[in-house]
Amino acid sequence: MQLIRQQIPLLAIVLCVTLLSWLALLWLITDSCHPLAMMTMPMSPAWSVGNLVAVFAMWVVMMAAMMLPSAIPMILLHSKMSSKGGVNGENLAFIFSYLLIWILFSIAAVIFQFITHSNGILNAASLTTSKIVSIILLLLAGGYQFTELKNTCLTKCRTPIGFFMGYWKAGVGGALNMGMRHGWFCLGCCWAIMLLLFVGGVMNLAWVLLLTIAVVAEKTLPAGELISKAIGVGLILGAVYMAYSLMSPQIMSSMQPMSMDCMKPMKM
User: Fold this and answer.
1) H/E segment holding residue 9
2) Cβ 238 vs Cβ 10: under 8 Å
């Protein structure tokens, strides 16, 4: 019980960061016509420096909101295994280095968004890629769920005790090392699913929440491996359905992505 009490402040910090991140996303979506929010969704392929910074910040906030919940078991076990009680430098170093990996992913996501936008592949109003690219992303993510690399990374994420037994290092430096290592495994597990944000809409809150639930489920629930395979099947079927929809105008008309009307005439 003493260890549990010691973990409460750390858990509160993680939950607060997660909640603030979700609230920031909610604000960006519900108040999308605010000048600051509009900076994250440039209409013109010629991004300004302000657009670049805003889009990067949006991705960092989104990754914190989506990935921190699934890392809570690992964060709490690290706190329990560290020699010091309560919130300390080792705990914070572990969290920071874990998030650092997703900050690097955010840079890659910004580059992908810029390239697809510049080449007319990305719908700037809905932040969704073209149907062809979306089908490719769905097939890529669905197929990746059945690869050995996915299984290896998922196993490392699902077994905190095994992870720390194999990679434990003491001190702040050790925490930084383990946090980054866990972040790489987590990235190897979830990068393809994160790219699906461009399929359903980067600023589609329901889609972001659905992907978050999928990640948390496969990484923390007892049947995580089975859930991972089920997700893969679902994504492949989704790609097939979208491919079929390309040949059916009636279906296509019912699948129009979310769009921000107030942003259409704006050039940023």
Assistant:
1) helix 2-30
2) no
